[in-house]
Write a structure and sequence with these properties.
By secondary structure, the chain is mainly β. About 0% of the residues lie in helices and about 45% in strands. The chain has strands at about 1-5, 10, 15-25, 35-40, 45-50, 55-60, 65, 75-80, 90-95, 110-115, 115-120. Strands 2, 4, 5, 6, 9, 10 and 11 form a seven-stranded mixed β-sheet that branches. A hairpin with a 5-residue loop joins strand 5 and strand 6 (about 55-60).
Length: about 120
Amino acid sequence: VQLGESGGGLVQPGGSLKLSCAASGFFFEQSAMTWARPAPGKGLEWVTTIFRAGTASSAVAAHGRIPFPRDNAKKTVYLQLNFLAPEDTARYYCATAGLPLKSCRTRADCRYWGQGTQVTVSS
């Protein structure tokens, strides 16, 4: 299983970024995909989970973070980050349980993780 995030970078407050996560080595079409990031004092913070049907569940605090429809042909999921603020600075990771019909939100439940892509919000 391989997960490769991209799309991070330096952006000014109020700006936007679109993150991508390319997957391989498992039944992507049948698997839910999760985005998470470290949060100060909170450990790993769940952002959103994109289910196999393309629907998504997101954290209440995930304002401005929009999970784009997944592209099963490309085995890729996306996360649109809008209205970015300095406190959004973090390394964003995608993850999966890697099993059909199984979703995950925590480090323990998500068996596979990418290396992450760094998002830095600064003027």
